Amino acid sequence: MAAKKKSFEDNLKRLEEIVDLMENGNVGLEESLKLYKEGVDISVLCAQKLQDVQQQVSTLQKTASGLFEKQPFDPVEE
After folding, report:
1. Beta bridge partners of 70
2. Which end of the chain has fewer beta carbons closer than 10 Å to its terminal beta carbon, N or C?
């Protein structure tokens, strides 16, 4: 799959292009299905990449003694 070789940003840009093409309504049914499948594949890759990066991110938090220590990344879900 070619999307795996692209950067996260390139994949995200392609996903935005796919959305624009499909929202325009200027593509036929078969082309829409092809674009939809490509979009799903790219979306899965982007989600996996975000999850991988999230696991690697650490935040520095100041302790009561004024020192900084690494804490695991804990996203706040809204």
Report:
1. 60
2. C
